[in-house]
Amino acid sequence: SFPVGVDKNQKLWLCNSGFGLTVVCFGNQTFSKVEGYDEDPQYFTKTGTHSFAEFPDRNILIKSSGSNFSMNTKTNQVSLFSVPEKYGVAMYAAPLCSDYLRNAIWVYQNNRLMLIDENKKERYSIDCDIKKYGIIQDIEVLPDGNVWIVLSSGIYRIDFAAKKLVPIHNLQQPNPFKLSLLNSHRAAISYLNGNMNLIEFNALNEAKLIDTLLPGIRTFYLQQDTIKNIFWAGADDGVYLLDKNFHLLKKFTAANGLGGSYIYGLLLDNENNVWASHERGLSFINSSTYQMINYDEDDNIQDNDYNNRCFFKAKDGTLYFGGIKGFNWFKPPVAIPSFYKPELYIDEIKVNNQPFLSDTNYNYIDQLQLLSEQNKITIHAVVKDLDIVHSNEIIYRFKNLDTIWQHLPASSYINFNNLAAGTYKLELGYYNRKQQLPVVQKTLEINIPFPFYKTIIFWIIISVFITSLIFFWFSRVRLNAQHRHYQQQLALEQERSRITSDLHDDVGASLSSLQINSTIARQLMDRTKKNQKNTLI
Description:
16% of the residues lie in helices and 42% in strands. By secondary structure, the chain is α+β, with helices and mostly antiparallel strands. The longest helix is centred in the C-terminal third of the chain and has 69 residues. It is elongated.
């Protein structure tokens, strides 16, 4: 291939000999991505990102490994944010938490939980020894200002006056994972190896267990749509939609269109639509139509693999999702930038392994008129998309015969072996995996005539022939029967004639004898008895 030029949309056009044009896109970015900071632009690709929080000035604090970074939301520049060094460096990537009531962020640093403002000034700190309490899993600020700390040993609250952590009664089950606030008095607590529990709390930091949600399912996150009064749950096998009583309404997994099933993060945007990060990228679920859109590397995501609990929604509605190679940030609604319409292109058609009409552009063929023995068809099709090539698939089906689309990669061979005689309408198009949308663009009519021995004329001839044979056989049988009958009648007549002739001869002789004897008798009547006797003897 050789370059043709770069267009106004930052796309490099390459001429691929024997095939057409290939376009490399440099400007198509659905999401903004951050992979590092000024001093090390690829820093996050080596350490990943783990947590987000927001300062009152709307700048974002990012936790990556043991370091903190700040992103200026006006310039989108990321720089190192060092907390007071008197506590040393963080031993692990502990979570961050925005405290909007106190205009600061909770940060864990080397066995110390601190409240830090945007000027790196410490507002408050408390001892949080990992050996005593375990690892910090999550931090949440309740609507009334109380701060709950989710530790591997249980859930605690901060006693600001006594400067110590106090366990929450009834919430000392080990290995809690995430605390999801639902409204002013309810929350959901997930556990690493247990069920998600629904609790009710009050201003006295008293908690009451209300219910177990989705028992038997490892559920990690819960988000509430307060307008529709429904709940969205993220688990290790998909996203669950629950009604107001937490009964299951729908389930979204990789089996029915979601990009991945192991949910790492779950957020509702300002329109209460769902955004989920998982092991295969980032997905969107429309909360009204349930349409799903899946995003991958073509959309500039940081990587297909994201991190658990690494998601955040800022005050202005901007969403942040972090993973193993950085993080993405965007403010919904998100439109996939597309300057070119995908097109299904038929590159080649072979019949019985031979090119069909080799001097014709196959893309303009809409009908294949074949012979009865031409029943092996191969079609090479390509989805030409100059923007998001890897997001499209070839789809095809026989109209009025198939209800399910068959899917193939964007450049594939469609094979039909031993296709039965008949007329087919082959529908072809492309399927956009991001938008879960099939688009039909071509219809190819395939006509394969039946062999002569399967045609109506053939069977009419066969029927006439068989009928004639049957009629001939029946006629011969009838003629033979008549012949036998005539033979029998003739033999009978001959026998009758013979008998009649024999009777005639016997009766004639007898009558003649009688007549002669009568004559003689009459002549002898006048003779003497002696002479009569001699005459008769």
